[in-house]
Amino acid sequence: MDEGPTTTVDAASYFSDPDGDELDFGASSSNPAVAGASVSSSRVSIDGVTVGSASVTVTARDPPMRAAEGRQSFGVTVWPPPPPNQAPVVSSAVPAQTVTENESVSVDLDGHFRDPEGGSLDYGATSSDEGVATADISGSVLAVRGVSEGRATVTVTATDAGGLSADHAFGVIVRPPPPPNQAPVVSSAVPAQTVTENESVSVDLDGHFRDPEGGSLDYGATSSDEGVATADISGSVLAVRGVSEGRATVTVTATDAGGLSTRQSFGVTVEPAGSTNQAPVVTSTIADRTAIRGGELPLQAYRYFSDPDDDELSYRVGTSNLAVAFVRIASPAVFYVTAVSDGEAEIRVEAKDPGGLTASTSFTFAVGNNAPRVKTEAPAVTSSPGQTDWLVLSDYFEETDVGDQLNFSASSNNSGVASVSIQFHAIYGYQAKVGGVTPGEATIDMTATDRGGLTASTSSLVTVTANRPPQVTQSIGNQSLAVNDTLTWDLSHHFSDPDNDALTYTAAGGFAVTVSVSGATFQLVGATAGVSPVRVTATDPAGRTAEITFLASVSASQSIEGLASSNPRRRPRITLRHAPADGGGSLRAGVDAFGARWVRWTEAVAKDRAVLGGVPRSGHGRADDVFLLVSADRLVTLGLDESPEPLDRGLLRVVAADVEDLRDRAVLPRRDRRGHALRWRVRRQRVHRLGEG
To answer: Pairing state of beta strands 625-626 and 599-601?
Structure first.
């Protein structure tokens, strides 16, 4: 029992008289200072006086003589009284809650209140404004429900088993519900498509659907008759493939992140293979671009389309947001996209053939200033006193915003070791001129700043040593040789070392040659017909280098290039002239051809193309006709040289080792870089074989 309280025991429950007599009871304590004992009728009262143990003896006597007596004893332990009940406490504050109208947020209050005695708590909650938010309790979980836009205070009361309680209040903000998700919309109709059997036409669906919330869309497509045409989706690009002649309807569905969707359908006509007109195709997409206000992006539309029928295409470029970007027409195939104000616009480019079939692609044009970027970190530089090294800054920085311009600055943290300045070169642009001053180390910091003040920086560690690098004293020009020909150089005549260090030499070459170095002797041997770069390197004992590079042109027989240069008066030339159809300027291309017999050129043009070919017949002075192929695809030169880009200006030189090489095809463009149409004319000229007058 606890110290202080009284415990009562009914002794009659523990004694009985065989005669049924009423008993008198008495009680005594072995230690009244610990526990007192008293009797009232049959009820024995035990009082806890102080902490300790005692024994209480209860006696029972029958009334007649009170001589018969029964007794029994029991132990009593008195404990200290328990501490008083303590009120619940707030263990962590309930954070302010934000809830949308007609939605609820839940809070487990057991994580925010605690009973010091470890008991369970009952909770209650009230809202200061139930027109804004209500508060309901279920067990230990508080649910706050938004009623209408505004602010309210929710007060939570935690009560323990002893009736003590604690309150805690927190704020509630009720916001109006967001506008409902809107389904995607059709921004432009997909035009009817015509496709040939076993061919495909592609449509960028991002140019035909739009999400009102600006989100991305997922696409699906079905064909009404997959025996006629199939429809497949890859990202935002729809590919319609013709299966067999007939008509089908393709239905495209655009679905937003919220599951809402819209659809549109268009007709597909599949023509039999060999039909005359096929739709243009997108040959490459246009990357998204950024620009600053006022910047102009040139757009050569013809670079992104081709026509399977080689039809002349017309082009159209449109913008989704004239407030951000507008399109200026420079020529039928060249456009300029001008940045007007900050924001984004979708630029759509469409090509149409004379039969009305189209293809399109689009890209995002974002207006706003972006910081320049370091595209590669500047390398470490090893220098010597008096040596100058050049770091071409365009190798390390790039500005992706159309119309923006970079200014450059550079500094050295130890100008006594290495100096630096920015200089402009007509070919390489801005360069950092690094000068070695005295041996030691210095860090060169280079910074590019755009017109908006945004920057990018890179650093180069410059190590200046007393050792100076080798130098090239005489370069080696491009070489022409035949298979198995050997050319030899003494490299000591081409390199020197300012410190008089002994130099070692190495060489490397491409597939057309084999190279070897023995001491200072360098040999180049023709291995197979072709053109290969060759690099010769001189290295001093400290590892510093200088190098010479050149091209080696190897022919299957004796070098035609060498023959031509040795006898320039007998160098044959076929000259072609072409001019824009609209009269805007003129360009020139020349073709050098070397043959073993008489060859004559004749003009043969059908649908703006002719074919270069023909092998001379046996006998002196007779030959088949030789023609020139003209098309818009790319330039393939004859014989040894090859150019990967379309030619639309300058001089085209073609070297052929023999007449067999003339059967290769040369393909020339139909438009120049400004989009002007080109007309080609071949002028007849007799070509003599070399060495025969």
So the answer is: parallel
For the purposes of burial, counting CB atoms within 10 Å of the CB of 453, is it exposed (0-12), middle (13-18) or buried (19 or more)?
A: exposed
Position 564 in a domain: no
Residues 6+ apart with CB under 8 A from 240: 193, 195, 200, 201, 202, 203, 223, 229, 230, 231, 250, 268
Residue 362, helix vs strand vs coil = strand
Among 31, 58, 78, give the residue marking a domain's end. Answer: 78
- CA 106, CA 277: separation in Å to the nearest integer? 66
What are 187-211's pLDDT values in tens digits? 999 999 988 888 899 999 999 999 9
Strand partners, 219: 254
Rounded to 5 degrees, what angle do the CA atoms 610, 614, 617 make?
150
User: Which of these three, 175, 195, 230, is where a domain ends?
Assistant: 175
CATH of the domain at 480: 2.60.40.10
Tell me the Cα Rg of the chain. Answer: 49
d(CA 115, CA 86): 8
Secondary-structure breakdown of the chain: helix, strand, coil percentages, each rounded to the nearest 5: 5, 50, 45
- DSSP structural state of residue 654: -
Closest-CA residue to 612 (of 671, 560, 660): 660
- Say whether both 211 and 263 belong to one domain: yes
Pairing of strands 141-146, 545-555: unpaired
Ordered strands of the 69-78 beta sheet? 24-29, 52-61, 69-78
Nearest-angstrom CA–CA distance, 25 and 41: 7
Do residues 135 and 202 share a domain?
Answer: no
Model pLDDT for residues 426-485, shown as the tens digit of each residue? 888 999 999 999 999 999 999 999 999 999 999 999 999 999 999 999 999 999 999 999
Does residue 93 lie within any of the structural domains? yes
- What is the rounded distance in angstroms from the CA atom of residue 38 to the CA atom of residue 23? 16
Cα–Cα distances (Å) from 204 to 216, 218, 239, 435, in that order, read 14, 12, 9, 54
Structure tokens given for 140: 């230990």
**Alpha carbon separation from 193 to 190, 235, 483 (Å, rounded):** 8, 20, 55
Distant-in-sequence contacts of 583-589, Cβ < 8 A, 24+ apart:
584/674, 584/676, 585/676, 587/648, 587/649, 587/650, 587/672, 587/678, 588/650, 588/651, 589/647, 589/650, 589/651, 589/652, 589/668
At 371, list the tokens: 């910081």
pTM of the model: 0.41
In 3D space, the residue among 538, 458, 557, 526 whose CA is nearest the CA of residue 497 turns out to be 538
601 with 529, same domain? no
